[in-house]
């Protein structure tokens, strides 16, 4: 195969310079199979650029890098139904002494694919001595027993991930000898959901909540067939560890529904392009498919003809796409059809689709984003935050093993700050996937710099049962993995804002290893994207980009909705401030500000009772006004404006201060970015400069609207006498 090289798109974190260390050396790639071919092609391309050589067998110059498959083949495919030992309800990440890492008797004997030279044998011995096998379907080890760096993997995908690790390491991969370093993904499935439409939707456009131009897959009703672009996308995703992509919007409209049947070829083509990068394709389907596509009178999950229709349809899908990943379903949510129409529940619905997928190793991602979007705002007893738990927790244990209940990380909807969804702690007998939003619907729509890895890292490290107990990452790792809504479109920078590429990269890396520090992930991304060797002042570049990005999510939080209350965005498109925009609407997203106070009382004592959906200690912490963390205060409590926060500030003064601070931080970001003129590609510099001007304008608007609003409601002046309008 040849590696893609679209000329009309930014190379993101795989510019040729990122391959300098690999491409300037002599490399041996050992093993067979399509993904090994991908590894070979990647190294070959790097060598063409940087002067090294690569071969698969035979004689040649002494090699400095070996990428070799071991003879051991893992029985499990990444998407196969996990066995007790694989899932075991313990984190998937290797733990010394756990069944995951134990050396199987006879394993070292099994590893002998032939005479590759002494360094490889030493590397294998080293790996075995370190108790490092089996590596699993996607794991790999990097060993440097002497002067040669050796990457070992049991399976092809592991070799590909091993190559990208060596690329990340750059020159550091060829430093002093070191023993085997074993890498295995924490999550078996690391998935991106595209909300791409085939037709241009009259309101949502080509990509729902897309801020990077059109779709890379479809344009105005037709497949784009930009094969290079899709391959290049697969390559970028593999390089950060993503292994599954759902290609179309979870809101499945009439044309998009047909991707399951007469337009399946379009999906198969994408699958063909992504397969060489270890990525399986999934498809969003409509629950009403038996009616709208099959002409049946019902889509009732207990109807025999409906079951047969799904079985036959699924069989046809696998005939076209043998490694098809499975279905994604948004049912009974925001107008999408679902089992409620037939008096059935979500377990009935999900199990209907899971059955036919099961023999092929496919899964159903069944979304838990189910709530009443036709709420009466006057009715204080209905609380949207409660909805997913109310619907799904009682169904725990009823889902088939190849159903993955996909839960948004928070109880509302991808806000800048929300507590962790209580569903994540409520379904021990169900495989759960946690869903993030890389596309910045509520975090600046790729007009604003907002590096989201610190937010995701907080969420992944959160321990719903209290400190020292299992984390959100552990739940996802034992269950269905991590999913995120993609931020990619046909924009020349992939993501509209060039710095938003870092979010896509970070999502993949955190899904692979949720313990990575967000600043370290940013360093990886910086070093790849802005290869230091090509920069006039790499230290200044790195320092400045850290200053701009590390805290950008918290800056965004400061100038938008305060203290976890959420929304306050313009209805519909969700960009920019509108404090009361959703206040008297049916969407269930209220802040309840009046002249005396603000916030949503979700306590058991006097409010909606939502705090009772958490296990201890959080059920108590959130219930207590005194204990509730400041950043979530208004999510859980309605308080007077003079309520004193743990920080010592009153609520209203906190609102004023953070809004002035947030804008000042954006001003500093604009100045810092100016210093980088000449240190980054001029087209990148120009694009970011343009976006920063908009970010500053918008941040000022947020500051002035939010501050003026709370000043007018509360009548409390700013303690520092700043203008409040
Ligand atoms: O955040 C909301 C978005 C909808 C989206 C929905 C969902 C695809 O505003 O555009 O629909 O979430 O997650 O299903």
Tell me briefly what this model is.
This protein is of the alpha/beta class and 725 residues long.
How would you describe this structure to a colleague?
This protein is of the alpha/beta class. It folds into three domains: 168 residues, 2-Layer Sandwich (Chitobiase, domain 2), CATH 3.30.379; 328 residues, TIM Barrel; 122 residues, Alpha-Beta Complex (Alpha-d-glucuronidase, C-terminal Domain), CATH 3.90.1330. 35% of the residues lie in helices and 12% in strands. The protein has an eight-stranded parallel barrel with strand order 7-12-13-14-15-16-17-18, surrounded by four helices. A six-stranded mixed β-sheet has the order 2-1-3-5-4-6, sandwiched between helices. The chain is globular, with a radius of gyration of 26 Å. The structure holds 4-O-methyl-beta-D-glucopyranuronic acid (GCW). The site of 4-O-methyl-beta-D-glucopyranuronic acid has 10 residues, from loops.
Present the secondary structure layout.
Elements: H1 20-23, E1 26-30, H2 34-50, E2 53-55, E3 65-69, H3 84-87, H4 107-110, H5 118-129, E4 140-144, E5 149-153, H6 156-169, E6 178-183, E7 190-193, E8 196-201, E9 205-207, E10 218-219, E11 222-223, H7 227-240, E12 244-246, H8 254-257, H9 264-274, E13 280-284, H10 289-292, H11 304-320, E14 326-329, H12 346-357, E15 363-367, H13 387-392, E16 403-408, E17 431-437, H14 453-461, H15 472-478, E18 481-485, H16 501-512, H17 518-529, H18 538-549, H19 552-559, E19 597-598, H20 618-623, H21 633-636, E20 639-640, H22 651-675, H23 682-714
Parallel strand pairs: 1-2, 1-3, 3-5, 7-12, 7-18, 12-13, 13-14, 14-15, 15-16, 16-17, 17-18
Antiparallel strand pairs: 4-5, 4-6, 8-9, 10-11, 19-20
């Amino acid at each position: 195969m040849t590696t893609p090289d679209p000329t009309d798109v930014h190379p993101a974190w795989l510019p040729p310079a990122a391959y300098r260390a690999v491409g300037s050396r002599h490399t041996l790639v050992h093993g067979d199979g399509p993904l090994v071919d991908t590894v070979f092609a990647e190294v070959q391309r790097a060598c063409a650029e940087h002067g090294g050589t690569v071969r698969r067998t035979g004689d040649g110059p002494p090699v400095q890098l070996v990428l070799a498959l071991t003879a051991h083949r893992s029985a499990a495919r990444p998407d196969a139904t996990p066995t007790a030992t694989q899932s075991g309800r313990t984190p998937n990440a290797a733990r010394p002494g756990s069944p995951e890492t134990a050396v199987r008797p006879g394993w070292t004997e099994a590893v002998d694919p032939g005479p590759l030279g002494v360094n490889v044998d030493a590397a294998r011995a080293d790996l075995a001595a370190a108790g490092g096998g089996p590596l699993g379907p996607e794991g790999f080890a990097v060993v440097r027993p002497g002067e040669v760096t050796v990457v070992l993997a049991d399976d092809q995908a592991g070799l590909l991930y091993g190559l990208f690790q060596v690329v990340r390491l750059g020159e550091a991969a060829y430093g002093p000898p070191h023993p085997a370093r074993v890498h295995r993904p924490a999550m078996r499935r690391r998935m991106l959901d595209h909300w791409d439409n085939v037709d241009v939707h009259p309101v949502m456009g080509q990509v729902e909540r897309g801020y990077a131009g059109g779709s890379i897959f479809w344009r105005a009703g037709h497949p784009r067939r930009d094969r290079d672009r899709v391959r290049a996308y697969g390559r970028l995703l593999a390089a950060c560890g993503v292994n599954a992509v759902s290609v179309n919007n979870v809101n499945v409209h009439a044309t998009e529904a047909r991707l399951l049947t007469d337009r399946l070829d379009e999906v198969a083509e994408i699958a063909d392009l992504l397969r060489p990068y270890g990525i399986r394709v999934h498809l969003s389907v409509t629950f009403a498919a038996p009616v709208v596509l099959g002409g049946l009178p019902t889509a009732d999950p207990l109807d025999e003809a409906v079951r047969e229709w799904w079985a036959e349809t699924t069989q046809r899908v696998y005939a076209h796409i043998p490694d098809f990943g499975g279905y994604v379903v948004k049912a009974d949510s925001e107008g999408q059809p679902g089992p409620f129409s037939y008096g059935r529940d979500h377990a009935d619905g999900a199990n209907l689709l899971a059955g036919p997928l099961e023999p092929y190793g496919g899964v159903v991602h069944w979304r838990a984003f189910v709530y009443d979007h036709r709420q009466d705002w006057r009715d204080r007893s209905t609380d949207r935050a409660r909805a997913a738990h109310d619907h799904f927790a009682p169904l725990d244990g009823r889902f088939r093993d190849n159903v993955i209940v996909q839960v948004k990380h928070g109880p509302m909807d991808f806000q800048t700050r929300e507590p962790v969804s209580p569903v994540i702690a409520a379904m021990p007998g169900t495989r759960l996937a946690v869903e993030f939003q890389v596309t910045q619907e509520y975090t600046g729509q790729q007009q604003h710099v907002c590096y989201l890895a610190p937010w995701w890292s907080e969420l992944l490290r959160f321990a719903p049962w209290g400190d020292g107990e299992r984390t959100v990452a552990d739940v996802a790792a034992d269950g269905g993995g991590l999913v995120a809504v993609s931020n990619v479109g046909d924009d020349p920078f992939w993501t509209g804002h060039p710095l938003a590429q870092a979010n896509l990269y970070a999502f993949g890396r955190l899904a692979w290893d949720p313990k990575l520090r967000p600043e370290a992930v940013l360093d990886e991304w910086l070093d790849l994207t802005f290869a230091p060797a090509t920069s006039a002042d790499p230290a200044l570049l790195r320092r400045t980009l850290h200053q701009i990005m590390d805290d950008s999510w918290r800056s965004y939080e400061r100038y938008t909705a305060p203290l976890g209350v959420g929304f306050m965005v313009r209805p519909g498109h969700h960009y920019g401030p509108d404090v009361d925009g959703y206040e008297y609407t049916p969407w269930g997203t209220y802040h309840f500000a009046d002249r005396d106070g603000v916030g949503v009382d979700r306590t058991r004592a006097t409010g909606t009772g939502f705090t009772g959906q958490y296990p201890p200690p959080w059920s108590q912490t959130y219930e207590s006004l005194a204990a509730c963390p400041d950043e979530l205060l208004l999510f859980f409590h309605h308080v007077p404006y003079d309520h004193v926060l743990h920080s010592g500030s009153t609520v209203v003064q906190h609102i004023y201060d953070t809004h002035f601070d947030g804008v000042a931080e954006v001003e500093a970001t604009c100045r810092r970015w100016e210093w980088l003129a000449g240190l980054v590609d001029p087209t990148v510099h120009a694009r970011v400069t343009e976006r920063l001007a908009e970010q500053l304008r918008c941040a000022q608007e947020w500051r002035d609207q939010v501050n003026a609003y709370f000043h007018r409601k509360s009548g409390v002046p700013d303690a520092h006498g700043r203008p409040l309008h």
